[in-house]
Amino acid sequence: MSIYSSEIILRTIDFVRSKSEGESSGHDWWHIYRVHKLAVYLAKKENADLFIVELAALLHDLDDWKFNESGSQQALEWLNKCNIQEETIIKILSMIEQVSFKGAGESDKTDTLEARVVQDADRLDAMGAIGIARAFAYGGFKNRELFNPDIKPEIHENFEAYKKSCGHTINHFYEKLLLLKDNLHTASAKILAEERHLFMEEFLSQFYKEWDFTGKI
Ligand code: ADP
Ligand code: NI
Prior knowledge:
Bound molecules: adenosine-5'-diphosphate, nickel (II) ion
Strand content: under 5%
Shape: elongated
Helix content: 55-70%
Order of helices and strands: HHHHHHHHHH
Number of helices: 10
């Protein structure tokens, strides 16, 4: 990496950090920090282009569809400000658009190794202990119940149905989190996912065990 491109990465870190600090719905700065770290690791393991992977990982949640309908506007403005070549900007914006999980019934459309690396990094951070913590933080932010045994999970046929869902947080495990392991792309991410997936399964069995406590003496 040239000095010039590492300078762009450092400036992008400062920019994204200033924009995302204090966010409480699961897209706080520390989510970006972890995804960036995972993406660098995966990019090196998979021999992907590190510069565009780092920029897409850092900018991937700046314009989130749940909070912002206008597309990747802020990411685009920032990349222009950094004087990045138009061709590279188009690649990065396309990676950002491909990264988000859109429901069980929507197939993933990633067209480059770099897009697959960033998507895998983002998904790994939705799994495991951190994924569990993020799901309940999101549920709290949206005033959702932890669990309600009367409301069963749904397999959403498309992105619209997934966006509209408002069930309890345990359902989110069946609607997204437990599906992630089999939808990762890179071999290195699949290895990291094993432990995180098992931990979520253990969490759920302990959760139901405590829920079903009968107190018989
Ligand atoms: P990401 O940043 O991984 O693309 P999202 O933008 O879809 O993820 O969501 C941010 C975080 O909130 C993730 O950890 C995700 O699993 C969680 N989340 C999203 N929707 C729900 C939901 N309906 N219930 C609980 N957690 C959710
Ligand atoms: Ni994300």
